[in-house]
Amino acid sequence: MKPINRLPNRLLRTAVAVAAIALLSGCANLVDRVAHIGEAPPLASIENPTKQPDYRPVSLPMPHPEPVIRQANSLWRPGARAFFKDQRAARVGDILTVKVEIEDEAKVDNTTTRTRSNTEEADLTNFLGYETYLERILPNAVSPEALVGLGSDSSSTGQGTVDRKEEIELEVAALVTQILPNGNLVISGRQEVRVNFEVRELLVSGVVRPEDITRENTIMHSQIAEARIAYGGRGQLTDVQQPRYGQQLFDVIMPF
Q: In which order are the strands placed within the sheet that holds 185-195?
């Protein structure tokens, strides 16, 4: 019996711990929001992207580097598109412009219906003699001809519809943060715009080929490998659009 009694206590302690963590995180955010009532959302300071806590250097399969062969008495520089110095981004710290032009449209409609009905009956006229004890406990309520009877009836209907249309057209300046062994550039760009009490931010990162960078030092988002593009915001309007912390916690822990 002891293991059975310990299980509810463990579940209770786990639930209390989860609730405490959620409460503390909610209180920390609440204190921060109360402290900045009436103030505009602060903008993030300009920092080195490689010094961020979540920054991780990119590691991808690379071919063996090829040595650069320089010819004597030659004015042509290997890798340059023009006779004069190439002004495109090519070194760590250089800046290039990323053009984001997304126009996606998707429509999906699914419907699922399931119905099941089960019935089981067992005739146990002699149940090791224990049927007589049942008659003593529940007189006139036990019938050996219908001692066990099981029945179940379930029905499930699901319907899902997706009608999505996205159209984004933006430009953001990105910084070259790393040069891979094969010459590809790792870029990272972040742009923040504050309008009244709402901050709109655009994040772009990925790997680009120097050959895809145009003479105007721009590149399309579709030419970025491992592209990570995020467009969102934070502020009063974003807070209103989010469910309350209690409701989000209830949706997570509620099994039904």
A: 218-220, 95-122, 148-179, 185-195, 198-208, 225-235
Q: What is the pTM of this model?
A: 0.57
One-letter amino acid at 130 equals: Y
The Cα 96–Cα 188 span in angstroms is 10
Q: What are the domain boundaries of the chain?
A: 2-36, 49-61+77-106+165-239, 109-160
Listing DSSP states for 172-235 in one string gives: EEEEEEEE-TTS-EEEEEEEEEEETTEEEEEEEEEEE-GGGS-TTSEEEGGG-EEEEEEEEEEE
Strand partners, 241: none
- Model pLDDT for residues 59-97, shown as the tens digit of each residue: 877 777 767 676 677 666 665 556 667 788 888 989 999
